Amino acid sequence: MDRTDDQHRLTDLTVHVALSGAFEGAYRSGENTTLLPTDSQKNAVYALAAERGPEPVEEFGLALGRHFLAGNPEVECAQVHLVQHAWNRLGERHSFTAAESARRTATVSATRSGASVCAGIDGLMLLNTTGSEFRGFRRDRYTTLPEASDRILASRVRARWVRRSLDGTDWDDEYATARESMTSAFVDTYSTSLQQTLLVMGERVLTDCPDIARVHLSLSNVHHLPALSLYGLQGVVEEKAQRVYVASAQPHGVIEGTVTRNDTDGMAASDPAWTAAEGWPW
Amino acid sequence: MDRTDDQHRLTDLTVHVALSGAFEGAYRSGENTTLLPTDSQKNAVYALAAERGPEPVEEFGLALGRHFLAGNPEVECAQVHLVQHAWNRLGERHSFTAAESARRTATVSATRSGASVCAGIDGLMLLNTTGSEFRGFRRDRYTTLPEASDRILASRVRARWVRRSLDGTDWDDEYATARESMTSAFVDTYSTSLQQTLLVMGERVLTDCPDIARVHLSLSNVHHLPALSLYGLQGVVEEKAQRVYVASAQPHGVIEGTVTRNDTDGMAASDPAWTAAEGWPW
Amino acid sequence: MDRTDDQHRLTDLTVHVALSGAFEGAYRSGENTTLLPTDSQKNAVYALAAERGPEPVEEFGLALGRHFLAGNPEVECAQVHLVQHAWNRLGERHSFTAAESARRTATVSATRSGASVCAGIDGLMLLNTTGSEFRGFRRDRYTTLPEASDRILASRVRARWVRRSLDGTDWDDEYATARESMTSAFVDTYSTSLQQTLLVMGERVLTDCPDIARVHLSLSNVHHLPALSLYGLQGVVEEKAQRVYVASAQPHGVIEGTVTRNDTDGMAASDPAWTAAEGWPW
Amino acid sequence: MDRTDDQHRLTDLTVHVALSGAFEGAYRSGENTTLLPTDSQKNAVYALAAERGPEPVEEFGLALGRHFLAGNPEVECAQVHLVQHAWNRLGERHSFTAAESARRTATVSATRSGASVCAGIDGLMLLNTTGSEFRGFRRDRYTTLPEASDRILASRVRARWVRRSLDGTDWDDEYATARESMTSAFVDTYSTSLQQTLLVMGERVLTDCPDIARVHLSLSNVHHLPALSLYGLQGVVEEKAQRVYVASAQPHGVIEGTVTRNDTDGMAASDPAWTAAEGWPW
């Protein structure tokens, strides 16, 4: 936090550091001379936050990556993953309250040949109470899902994006624009499937943020099942103005996809953070 | 959710039901004729939400309590605990995004002689970056805590309150006022201890909400330790404008207290929900 | 851990301390002279573990309770809740692996007039693949649950018990006996309801442990629903030797009850730990 | 569960399915004819469990992978991740209790050109109360960690391994051997670093399991800090036979590494499950 002026500023981060490289000797010999303790890595995060400040997280991550490369010749890739928890200001001076659960994220991969940044958001919850259907899907012998002509669409959104280059970025502005693009696309779009909504959301990001080269979206489908039919109460209960749904945490589906600008097709292909973003977490 | 008008409304609840009474026979005989399945209790929650609507949660809980008393002569106390998750509107019509993590709560205890309501809030996170000290406390042989003249004060607030009577309550308005009272008291008060802050918060609620008879507050103390001294980096790192702290989840302290209006001292003493609110969770 | 002999011993505890009493002055005056910091309370737990050892947990809790009473005249009740995580020995000397998820618990309430101990267990998962039915229960207009003549019975068991007196207790032996009593009763009993099973479990504890005065049981009912009928696949899939079930975490029922020895009916009525054990967690 | 014989058998699984392939059309057109609902994918898991049984999990995963390839020409890779929760038998017939927290895992990647299996274990907790040091490590300006000549070594182990081929595997036997190899290596080895312990564990697996080609290990370092020095109590408290430690959940280090048989160096390089196992989870 910055307590210089009367109006304080608060930054709340969780930081992960992963160093990889030519450490085989340490595993084989039992000699530790090349091993920077994870405790020192943790200290470096706090020290650089004190020395240079932690915002924007993308640049703080780049500084951390450079720091680990500089001090450890064995390191080939220093990856720094940062998660920013949002707080809202109370009053004018030094009070805050925890804001919504969506978190801004950044993953920096710093190597000897350069650094890349994978920016993003986790846990953005969006919900439409109408304007969504799911019909005409494939039916196999195990399919029992009825077609839905008016369904609730609720999704927990994870997104990751990369830029054409790191030059001249206003990270805060680009994050705000990308988030607003995804949100407005979700709100505006009549959805025939979460897949179709995903594409619209990704395309909107590319349209609104000209320097973003590609965006990966992972949309958890938080199913909302009509309670009365689910529990056999249709004939028993007269449903008035409201409609009652069961929000089902488990099991649930996840729809993923990457939207790429034509002229940047190959980008990020070998970025380990990007590979992780597109992979499955097991 | 209410989808009657163009502008939909969304209510997101988690509901717990606890029935207690003269059920000894069922335990002894293995005959189940007096046992309403928990599955039917769950169905009743959805059915009454459909038939009468789920808001405000205090009145929905009262309706559920009456329902279980009416249908089950063995029940002596039907307790209904409701947790409301907040969503913010996106646009003008049918879109929403999950709001902050604080949840409005209500616990209804319905008996043959009447019903009581214990209203409240869970998980309200408040933080002051200055305006707090902790000094002059008791020191025993195990005390190593240094005195703090300028500390970060962060707290996760749980509150429960009861009214003089249930008549003529605008539950939404009273919830908003009580929440704003606690928040503004936390923001305004120079804190010499979390205990002192707690009392100010409770008194503010009683002042601003004339029909609330007593309020119980449980303030989790989310310790913020200066990172550089905690990790032995004071001499090494020059801290600039910002100050860096470690937010410590475990272990942590919890400060509790009940603030009561003088003329309502005995109230709620036998309310099982109140007893639970004042007790420890094990 | 005890590393005196070649064969080390390991004890893994989580400890909660709650002090209550005549602290009103500290809340009112903002003077902290009567407040022992929660940090010092935490230190006392580690210090007494070092000085006297942490086992058995019931006696460690009593020592902690006495410590807080002795040093703080304002304290009227010092409550200490201990949770013991189990580890199994690997080999003969100093290696261990985390054991099952059930945890032994103890809650000590130490006052100026004496101390009480509420011993117990949390998270004991028991499951019978047959030998259970649920029929003849009450049906109201919202009841849709079919009668079950051969159901899976799975329960997460929480138990709390108190003794006639604290004299001459072999806490380890009594814990082992009480646990085995509950387990064998669950295994042996043909269940017509979880309520009936609960009573048999409680009575078995009182029979096998002559010094236990009363036992409270809380049985979470982990419903196992036949997958094929739940998902409309009965006609489609031929189920062979096996039966496939969906273990449903939410929503679920909880059955509670207290079994008391006739001649000890009033015991524990005012013990705050017991009140908490019998109450609902909100 | 298998309830054919008097002695029932219980299998407790969590299953994840991920289908990828030529689905671009569905995202673009809003037509859903190529989309098999996630609901049908879930149904297929239950249906195949009923029709063919769910054990061993590696073969159940292969059957599921083949099923999704067969029915969906657009699918290029069907990945199935299975997690098996262990239960111990109570008595001789149909009763069980939840066993330890370690889970057996399997990840199947089924493509048109063949299938691969990545077997493994999650959450295996191992702890040595002595026989571990950490000295001679790199020190930079932020390093404050003291050298440790007798430290507690505790680790939560995640492992993944692949075989030379899928032919003739006794999956249950190989899992038991690999697990025992890792455990005994952890117990037997005097540790100069977790890196060195990791290599010994991996080599032991390759020695004991001749058909395993490579193994990836991820060892979370659950730091155990001496409580008295951590909290400034060394001079105050006399520590007897026992030693008291604080098990620190956060922050913590994770040490990773892959051990490969020389003649199988290139194997698994393109297996998406393997890439995920070696990557970081963000």
Automatic annotation (TrEMBL), chains A, B, C, D:
<feature type="binding site">
    <location>
        <position position="38"/>
    </location>
    <ligand>
        <name>urate</name>
    </ligand>
</feature>
<keyword id="KW-0560">Oxidoreductase</keyword>
<feature type="binding site">
    <location>
        <position position="221"/>
    </location>
    <ligand>
        <name>O2</name>
    </ligand>
</feature>
<feature type="binding site">
    <location>
        <position position="221"/>
    </location>
    <ligand>
        <name>urate</name>
    </ligand>
</feature>
<feature type="binding site">
    <location>
        <position position="134"/>
    </location>
    <ligand>
        <name>5-hydroxyisourate</name>
    </ligand>
</feature>
<dbReference type="GO" id="GO:0019628">
    <property type="term" value="P:urate catabolic process"/>
</dbReference>
<feature type="binding site">
    <location>
        <position position="38"/>
    </location>
    <ligand>
        <name>O2</name>
    </ligand>
</feature>
<comment type="similarity">
    <text>Belongs to the uricase family.</text>
</comment>
<feature type="binding site">
    <location>
        <position position="134"/>
    </location>
    <ligand>
        <name>urate</name>
    </ligand>
</feature>
<feature type="binding site">
    <location>
        <position position="221"/>
    </location>
    <ligand>
        <name>5-hydroxyisourate</name>
    </ligand>
</feature>
<feature type="binding site">
    <location>
        <position position="39"/>
    </location>
    <ligand>
        <name>5-hydroxyisourate</name>
    </ligand>
</feature>
<feature type="binding site">
    <location>
        <position position="151"/>
    </location>
    <ligand>
        <name>5-hydroxyisourate</name>
    </ligand>
</feature>
<feature type="binding site">
    <location>
        <position position="39"/>
    </location>
    <ligand>
        <name>urate</name>
    </ligand>
</feature>
<feature type="binding site">
    <location>
        <position position="195"/>
    </location>
    <ligand>
        <name>urate</name>
    </ligand>
</feature>
<dbReference type="GO" id="GO:0006144">
    <property type="term" value="P:purine nucleobase metabolic process"/>
</dbReference>
<feature type="binding site">
    <location>
        <position position="151"/>
    </location>
    <ligand>
        <name>urate</name>
    </ligand>
</feature>
<comment type="pathway">
    <text>Purine metabolism; urate degradation; (S)-allantoin from urate: step 1/3.</text>
</comment>
<feature type="binding site">
    <location>
        <position position="195"/>
    </location>
    <ligand>
        <name>5-hydroxyisourate</name>
    </ligand>
</feature>
<dbReference type="Pfam" id="PF01014">
    <property type="entry name" value="Uricase"/>
</dbReference>
<keyword id="KW-0659">Purine metabolism</keyword>
<comment type="function">
    <text>Catalyzes the oxidation of uric acid to 5-hydroxyisourate, which is further processed to form (S)-allantoin.</text>
</comment>
<dbReference type="InterPro" id="IPR002042">
    <property type="entry name" value="Uricase"/>
</dbReference>
<feature type="binding site">
    <location>
        <position position="38"/>
    </location>
    <ligand>
        <name>5-hydroxyisourate</name>
    </ligand>
</feature>
<dbReference type="GO" id="GO:0004846">
    <property type="term" value="F:urate oxidase activity"/>
</dbReference>
<protein>
    <recommendedName>
        <fullName>Uricase</fullName>
        <ecNumber>1.7.3.3</ecNumber>
    </recommendedName>
</protein>
